[in-house]
Design brief:
The structure holds two protein chains of two kinds. By secondary structure, chain A is α+β, with helices and mostly antiparallel strands. Chain A has four helices and eleven strands. Chain A has one domain: 3-Layer(aba) Sandwich (Glutaredoxin), CATH 3.40.30.10. The relative contact order of chain B is 0.14. In chain B, β8 and β9 form a beta hairpin. The chains are: A alpha+beta, B alpha+beta. At the A-B interface, α1, β1, β2, α2 and α3 of A face α2, α3, α5, α7 and β4 of B.
């Protein structure tokens, strides 16, 4: 897809010293090798659980919710929070929506879910919530500005991305791409198990 | 004899000799030039065939259009030319060739710079230009004067004493080889610099509609490609908000419809918590944020569309970018309402900024500005294929699970909306309205670290080349000896590059040595 295609096609001699570079990239789980698939960047799916001693504080993201209220991460201090980034247009998000709702219902008050709706319009996002029976709040952030505040080493490098924030308000895990109820449960248990309060 | 050699076969070179021969061939100037040419040729397919690193969607479309050619191209790396084995091979061979060429030459040059100028040959008359004369000045005086004269001409000078007198040896033009070496080294620096830039660099494209924002995180990009060593943590965390976009087009004359001004205005927040700074972005005037540049590379229209479903609920309401297909800004776009009930709804259509009514209903736009905007739509219902989890372009409607709405004549239903209009879908399945119009900009956001390195190296390479082409290394010798109570002075010069009139040069040196003419004899 292009708008004024070919206006500047730089004759760039690109990507070289291939052998060395490729082998080097192979060591770093290749997370940086993302690509556009027509309108957005998707990922290959990877779970990072941060050891307790290395966790960094999660940004206190806050903003207007889709149901015309407002919410911030610090409202849920002292609870494990699952922050899920989604858009109604994103196929991988739709694929995991039912699983997130399932885990949310199963864990009840033990774990708080917080959605982060990006690159969407409010009506489409609300219709998505109706379709999947999402009851937890979602911050409406069409330009992804809140994602900039997460620790760079755990950057949201694709959509969907799900963060698990521990009871001390630190980023404990990042799940890239579609997750399942069992995977998410496993990660939450990991995070709870390592927390002093859990 | 036990072993016989069949006639006609050349004797096999011992393997060590063969390797040395190969190395000499590889590091020869001719091979380097050939490889440079090959590299330029190898880069050509990359600009003719869509590249998956640049535009994966274009690759997919190309593959659909050329079902037999595409698999072949794919196997030989045609869709990723710059990282294909054969391109890398040419690149690496060129590097090896250049490095193998100049490293030994630097060693030779280093020795030559420290060495004394070459000794005077025994017989000057064998040299291309020589002269001799007889004078009454004593030998030391002649040699002293010769040294001073040659030093003034920027020769490096040394003296030898001989049995019956002495000789001055001199050489200049050492910088020629230095220039040549600088050229070679800089060429390698350019190659490495460009490679490093593309290994650590990134390039992404994004569409931002008026009133919307962009944050520099991968989730906001429409397309993105990066070098193998790029780390997403290196993306500078800036955010920009697009307030307005102005596009002016020529209204009359032969250049009617030509773009006159594209200008995007908004605010830039260089990092979370920083104060917003207004920006003003125009074509070829990128915004620089640290090492990252934001270019305005395109624009188009984003009609504001609202979709209601069969239950009467609003299931979509927002500006939808329609991608221009030609200079009149006829644009194509897609609207998906996956949460419509009872069935998902999809729309595919075109946008005409200045619609012209044609007899057969062909969509035509007479002018790129939005003077008479119309939105043409075809509607579908069924399964959009969004719930299976397979990635899908937001600009393409996957029609496999969809049924197209038809009109009373069983023809595909076509709706042509003007701003403010709403069209009902058949069977009470919903409606769609064209509420307003906004514009979008297409931004290219890129960084290639160390772009100044290849630039500086390129300039230095040209400088080196000029020096190596213009400077002439030259040797000069003056020998003086006592003979029959007088001093015989011999002068000779030797150019390592032909083309100058050495004879007159020798004469000039003789005249300045003598101060006044005496009997002189030139060869």
């Amino acid at each position: 897809m292009s708008v004024v295609r070919g206006a500047v096609t730089r004759p760039v001699v690109a990507v070289v010293v291939a052998a060395v570079a490729l082998s080097a990239a192979g060591c770093t789980s290749g997370l940086s090798a993302t690509q556009g698939t027509g309108g957005y960047v998707s990922s290959n799916g990877a779970i990072t659980v941060v050891p307790e001693s290395e966790r960094k504080p999660a940004p206190d993201i806050s903003g207007p919710t889709l149901d015309a209220g407002s919410v911030s991460l610090s409202d849920f201090a002292g609870t494990v929070v699952v922050v899920n980034t989604w858009g109604s247009w994103c196929t991988e998000c739709r694929a995991e929506a039912a699983d997130l709702v399932e885990v949310d219902e199963q864990l009840g008050d033990e774990v708080q879910f917080l959605g982060l709706n990006i690159r969407d319009n409010e009506t489409a996002a609300r219709a998505y919530e109706t379709t999947y029976g999402v009851t937890y709040p979602s911050i409406f952030d069409p330009s992804s500005s809140l994602l900039l505040e997460f620790p760079p080493e755990l950057a949201a490098i694709a959509i969907p991305v799900t963060y698990v924030v521990d009871v001390d308000g630190r980023v404990a895990a990042r799940i890239l791409s579609t997750t399942s109820a069992s995977t998410l449960m496993g990660v939450i248990e990991d995070v709870q198990g390592s927390s002093p309060g859990g | 004899m036990a072993s016989t050699r069949s006639a006609g076969t050349a004797p096999a070179l011992p393997s060590g000799q063969f390797l040395r021969w190969t190395w000499r061939q590889l590091t020869s100037m001719r091979t380097a030039l050939l490889l440079l040419l090959l590299l330029a040729l190898a880069a050509v397919p990359g600009s003719l065939i869509p590249q998956s690193k640049v535009d994966p969607l274009a690759v997919k479309l190309f593959a659909d259009k050329h079902p037999t050619l595409a698999p072949v191209l794919d196997r030989i790396g045609g869709f990723s030319v710059y990282s294909s084995p054969w391109f890398s091979a040419v690149y690496l061979l060129l590097m090896v060739s250049l490095v193998g060429c100049f490293v030994p030459r630097i060693a030779v040059y280093a020795r030559a710079v420290r060495a004394r100028p070459p000794a005077a040959p025994r017989n000057f008359e064998r040299l291309p230009a020589s002269a001799s004369y007889v004078t009454d000045q004593p030998v030391p005086e002649v040699l002293d004067r010769a040294q001073r004269l040659l030093r003034a001409q920027r020769y490096r000078v040394d003296t030898d004493s001989e049995t019956t007198g002495g000789a001055v040896r001199a050489q200049r033009g050492y910088l020629r080889e230095a220039g040549n070496l600088l050229f070679h080294v800089c060429l390698v620096v350019v190659l490495v610099g460009v490679a490093v830039g593309s290994l650590f660099g990134y390039k992404g494209g994004v569409i931002v509609t008026e009133g919307e924002g962009f944050s520099n995180t991968l989730t906001q990009y429409d397309e993105f490609s990066a070098g193998a060593l790029f780390d997403s943590a290196d993306l500078p965390p800036f955010r920009l908000q697009l307030d307005s976009f102005q596009a002016d087009f020529q209204l009359d004359g032969p250049q009617r419809g030509a773009p006159r001004l594209f200008e995007a205005r908004g605010d830039l927040v260089s990092r979370p918590g920083a104060a917003p700074v207004p920006f003003d972005l125009r074509v070829n005037h990128p915004l620089a944020i640290g090492g990252t540049s934001v270019f305005l590379i395109g624009q188009g229209y984003a009609p504001v569309i609202t979709v209601r479903d069969g239950d009467g609920n609003v299931v979509f309401s927002g500006a939808v970018p329609f991608l221009p297909v030609d200079s009149s800004y006829i644009s194509n776009g897609v609207v998906k309402a996956p949460d419509a009930a009872p069935e998902q709804l999809g729309f595919e259509g075109f946008f005409l900024p200045t619609a012209v009514d044609t007899a057969d209903g062909t969509p035509v736009s007479a002018f790129p500005a939005a003077l008479r905007p119309r939105l043409g739509l075809f509607a579908f219902h069924g399964d959009l294929g969004l719930d299976a989890g397979a990635p899908q372009s937001v600009y393409v409607l996957e029609r496999d699970g969809l049924t197209q709405f038809t009109d009373a004549n069983n023809k595909p239903l076509r709706m042509l909306l003007e701003p403010g209009a709403r069209a009902q879908l058949p069977d009470g399945l919903g409606s769609i309205s064209f509420d307003g119009l906004r514009q979008f900009v297409k931004l290219q956001i890129s960084a290639s670290p160390g772009t100044t390195v290849p630039l500086v190296a390129g300039v230095l390479a040209i400088g080196g080349l000029v020096v190596s082409l213009t400077l002439r290394p030259r040797r000069a010798w003056v020998r003086a000896r006592r003979e029959h109570g007088r001093t015989v002075v011999e002068v000779a010069r030797l150019d390592r590059v032909s083309g100058t009139d050495l004879g007159s040069d020798v004469q000039a040196l003789v005249r300045s040595l003598q101060g006044e003419p005496t009997t002189s004899r030139s060869s």
